[in-house]
Structure prediction request, 296 residues.
Amino acid sequence: MESGSRGGGAILLDEHAEHVAQVYDKMADEYDDIREPYFYNTYGMYDHFLMPLLEKEAGSRGFDRILDIGCGSGLQLRRLQRLGREVLGFDISVGLVEKARQKFRRYPHIKLFVADATRIPLDDASVDCVSSYGEVFSHISNVEGALAEAGRVLKPGGVFAFDIDNKWHAGLLFSPSELWQSLTRRGSVDRQWEYVYEDRAVTKVRTRALVQRDLVAMLARAGFRVEAVSGCHIFSSLVPYKYQTPLVVPRLFSVGKLGLIPELDIHLGMLDQVLGRRWPFRELGFTKVVFARKAA
Prediction:
């Protein structure tokens, strides 16, 4: 079911995407204050694994045009802005795009807009590099359609760096219902992601977790070949998610900035960075990080 245009950008969203946009609109004011180890580890992997590949690909000349799908408040843009002469970023959340615009108002080569990843308002083969990080594609009902759109706007030989939820991961040990679902259902599965706002309101979002076979097949149909893969949140998933949130704890356990257990989880995330590209670890992360290339 399609809805009409949203304030701040005329785009068509399906019902699920509309819900995702509303969730992140409410999150916009607190988005940059999130201190959970999950986010530290997510961007630790981006810097350790993807950035060296993107920097090598950009070379001394840089990319002519980069597209950041699901740019959020600009965490990726801050990394990408030095690699391209023009950097485009979009998100379905009006609130997050406005947040990013405030940050980058003095960066004339960064252009931001509101759009749906399954209907990117750009010409065919118009960008050299596509980046999408923060499990953006797991939030999209039509994952294959979004991957195809990334392939459509990317020039032949261009690169695509992204991450997506993985079906098999260590955290399943702490969720019997999800483990049972994974064991009894072939192929990819749906999950329920729960987020607690600073005002303690709770929301849930349906996400999609893929198996390697399905992901590789979708990428191939979109014209991509996979060049490098790393697991993320592998060892760090051995700490149950509910214990990862920074808490006000007795002084004895106040180790580091976030507390003993969150700091431990960040160190486990560093182990993910070292071993994430090796088998079998790359198959067991909560998230799979992929570097692919569009066929020339």
About this structure: Residues 1-10, 248-255 have pLDDT under 50 and may be disordered. The beta strands are 63-69, 84-91, 110-114, 127-132, 154-165, 189-196, 202-209, 224-232, 287-294. The domain at 15-168+186-232+284-294 is CATH 3.40.50.150 (Rossmann fold).
